[in-house]
Amino acid sequence: HLVDQLVIQNTELAIRLGKSPSGLRATSALDAVKQAASICENLTFHERALETAAELENVDASRLLEDLVRLNVVAGDWKSGRITKASLTISCRSLGLNYAGGISDTAERKYSEDYAFSWRGRTEYAVAHIRNGKGARLYRVHVFFDDEAQQVVVAYVGRHLRDKSTN
Predict the structure, then answer these.
(1) Residue 143: which H helix or E strand, with range?
(2) Where is 157: in which H helix or E strand?
(3) pLDDT of the chain along its 167 residues, tens only?
(4) How far from chain centre, in Å, is Cα 97?
(5) Which residue, among 12, 62, 16, has the nearest Cα to 41 in the 3D structure?
(6) Strand 139-146 and strand 128-132: pairing?
(7) DSSP 2-29
(8) pTM flag (> 0.85)
């Protein structure tokens, strides 16, 4: 446990210094999510994130793991009050994450069920997301910021969900 904590502290320090964290390796998207779930104390992983990650193939799994660890740093800053929801985009981008705080009006209107998940007895929508990769290597990590419970919930890890570009 102490070794894991030292690794995550070293990784967080590297990320904050603008360096790529070393030693983060994953063999698949599911492996990346499982590793992140064990080391990222500021993220909560919904079962749907594991299910969708299991279906995700041909992505840079180590990069996905790095993105989740970077997101963990931002989540820790949000939970501690160092940043607000209004500054999430700037904080994410300063740590090398391609973050979007929402989805298109079309996606929200026509495909909201793609972003919905059951959380604490209610339906929530994971519209904030991290974007990475291109073409067949593209992936999205959709998150929900639970203000009430002060939790950052990773709800989906997979391909691009339907939006305004969907026919």
Answers:
(1) strand 139-146
(2) strand 151-158
(3) 666 666 666 676 666 666 666 677 899 999 999 999 998 999 999 999 999 999 999 999 999 999 999 999 999 999 999 999 899 999 999 888 999 999 999 899 999 999 999 999 999 999 999 999 998 899 999 999 999 999 999 999 999 887 767 66
(4) 9
(5) 12
(6) antiparallel
(7) HHHHHHHHHHHHHHHTTPPPSS---SSH
(8) yes
